[in-house]
Amino acid sequence: ILGAMEEPMSLESPVGSEDSSQLGDFIEDEDAPEPMDAAARDMLRESVKNALAVLSERERQVLELRFGLVDGKDHTLEEVGQYFNVTRERIRQIEAKALRKLRHPTRSRHLRDYLG
Hints:
mainly alpha
């Protein structure tokens, strides 16, 4: 038995009496997200998208950049200001206004389930 464990085996080796199953079919992909986690993440993404729809285009873009909603990287006020060619103070004001809009009870109720 120990000798067999040391021999390399192809993941395409047939398993069982039928040739329809392969060894690779039974090996778990540890990097793959759990189906429930993936579904919850998709639902959250859709809820955030719907919440941001009430904002102006500029407000939405500022929040997306500031919180890394598009590229996964948070950007500083300075970086976002350079992108829009305005001061970081102006970006702070736009961000604050957008967050105030999103905090309104009718707009935030869809996201409350995800906040804990």
